[in-house]
Amino acid sequence: VPDTNWQLFIDESGDFDDPDDVVCVAGLFVPLPADDDLEPYLRTRLDEAFPLTTYPQHAAELDVPISRALLALRSPRLEGEPAAVADVRARIAPAIGALLGADDPEVLTTVGAHRVGVPLTHDRVRWLDIWLRGAAPEAHRELRAVCDEQEEALRAHVLGDLADLVRRYTTEVLPPSDGNPLPARPVALVAAEASPEGAGPPAARYLALFELLLERVYAHLREPGGARHHVLVRTSARDLRFGDATNDHRLDAPDVVRASRRAAGFPFLPAEHLPDRRVWLSALATESFGPAMHPGLVLADYVANRARRALKSTPIRSMPLAALQQSIERRLGHVDTRLPLRARPTLGPLPTVAAGGLARRHVRTCFVGRVAPEPLHHVPRWASESAQAWEIAARALAAEGAWSR
Amino acid sequence: MVEVTPMDDDEIDRAPEPDPAIARADLARRLLGLAPRDELVSFAAFTRAAGAGRPARTGWARLAAEDALLAAACDEAGIAIAASDDDGALVELDAPRGALRWDGRVREDASHHLAIDAREAPAVVQVVTATLELALVVGRDGAFGARVTRRLDLRPRASSRPETPTPPDVDALLADRDAPAWAREAATALASSASPLDRVAAVGLCARLPRLDPGDDDDEHAAPAAEIPAIAVGRAWPSGLDAPAVARVEALALARVDALDDALAHFAEAARAGALAGEARDRAALHLWHERDDLESAALVLRVLDRHELVSRSLAALDARVTTGDASRDLAAAAASDARLATLAPPAWAALRAQST
Predict the structure, then answer these.
(1) Are the Cβ atoms of A156 and B258 closer than 8 angstroms?
(2) Which of A146, A152, A323 is nearest residue B248 as measured by Cβ atoms?
(3) B86-140, pLDDT tens digit by residue?
(4) In A199-281, which residue ranges form alpha helices assigned H by DSSP?
(5) Cα dihedral across residues A140, A145, A148, A149: positive or negative
(6) Cβ atoms of B295 and B315 closer than 8 Å
(7) A65 to chain B: which residues are within 8 Å by CB?
(8) Each residue of A312-335: pLDDT tens digit?
(9) Least Cα separation, residue B184 to chain A (angstroms)
(10) Contact A41/B262, CB-based, under 8 Å?
(11) Global pTM?
(12) Alpha carbons B132 and B138: distance in angstroms, whole number
């Protein structure tokens, strides 16, 4: 049975320093081999979707309409500029005109600093956006229309093209499946705190969700006696703050490997740290946000951003899992939030949206099967339903002895 | 791995000179057809180089490996390959010379011939195209290994841009509506926007306006008041939206709600910190209200299309934050005398107004 290659791009969203903020770690998971050509391919798609912006595009920045004007200000017109780009430039021009002709000296100072390369804080950009709404509403409306157009381009021409690649790879390049097909679309993996837990330092909150995400990757892919899966993991770097300056550091490959090892025992807990020869995770060096980063991580940033939006958009405690999944999928387009277990596809697709804390412990206990899991009291509805779906699968597998070593 | 029998010189000379791409492809296909699958065939040029140390010709070659039958024809411009893949299916390709890659034991001479020196260690020649990867390993003993792998085709495909809904006819939509100047102006601006969401919002806005003569339509006369705008939308326009277009409008609406949520939070911070004050603050607040109201109009159309649930839920959560948030007083003050809000009364505005009274 040939090995199956996957790529997993991981980023996070939310303020892990704020104990009350909604945070999540999210991954864009695709059954594609590591191909040197994939990077320029996606990079080109992103640049086409976001003319007059600077790579890498940042989801939080792009959500603010005025970012288009600020980025265009520093993007000089080039000889032979394509008509589509010139059109966007023309539509952005009124907003730029309003910024440069502002009667507010603070606006002029801020924009002047930006033009000579002084980085603006996110708060400053948002303040300019609010100011422009009042000062030049029509110009702002046009920026908003440009944002809409680019949002559509990202969904249709970047994620849509990626979905098309996945479909063609799994159906045209790989040999026909034996009734256990690989997903035909990218999968969004989301590990979120079920409610603002606030316990522990920011790094611990992040790493707990990161491990949960990898834990589910192992669980989804394990095929005892079946194919081996190789997962290439790319992760966006971030500062890990443990509240202890001697331990604080930048997330890098060793952290990813450690998390992977802790997750590798799942679902054979408590036999952690044992090597698993059926699912291999290869962690590449983490990548800081910058021009050299892999475009898959730009998309992971977008996935994480939109997943967090979905988590924040409604009264989260009463939201059914199906509604949350729908909310994530419809925000992103062309991605799934369900994936069958490779070991038992007949169990049906399981949710790839998982909750940390009690819900995670509940599922782990079900897989071990020796003791009764903690009841899911006071767990938000979506988290409880996700855990219950995994509980059913875990019990079925345990009953069959399917995952015993 | 295959054993290789060199072809004799006559056989090589009889091979036609491949010139254009078509000839290369024809030759490769023909060479492949010369030998049945699983039969040992020759791989002349490379063998001679490995065996005698002479420069190899890249003119043509054919071989059978364990699971692949392959023939190739090369010239200065390109290489054509006909091969069977692992499933026995015929794969044909015509690749530029750039598709050829080789290691340090292979070099190209002035005549564009590849010379392979495998006397001390194996040499590797690869052909990598958009859809196929072929690796040939030439061993010290003259043996060859070949592996043909299909690749994911990463060449961009022409994808059609989603069609933006036709701009609605505002005059027609407002024909039976009591439309003051602000309404006509707002609807026209939305309808002329390039954004499909704005165009949808234009329809919803018109439908939300009061009718000139509420009694002149039996359907609307019989319907509960809350349903009348929906009936107007259904009659006016959105039947032309197909399912993908509706999904796009919904996604854009969700993105706008999210962005508006952020903007309101930042408005509150800026107002609290005094970074936004007086007339500038009120103008910005009014713009935020109108953006909220645009989303109400879009949500109405989505409701008619039975695709409003997520957007409505997100708007409700947004409104809850508006009415209880730090900026509620500033927002309420800015909206107090706005004719549009007074007429259309989006829920958050109505809630704030109820609070203040």
Answers:
(1) no
(2) A152
(3) 454 555 556 676 777 777 777 665 655 555 566 677 777 787 777 777 777 766 6
(4) 202-221, 253-264
(5) negative
(6) yes
(7) 259
(8) 886 667 889 999 999 999 999 999
(9) 15
(10) no
(11) 0.83
(12) 20
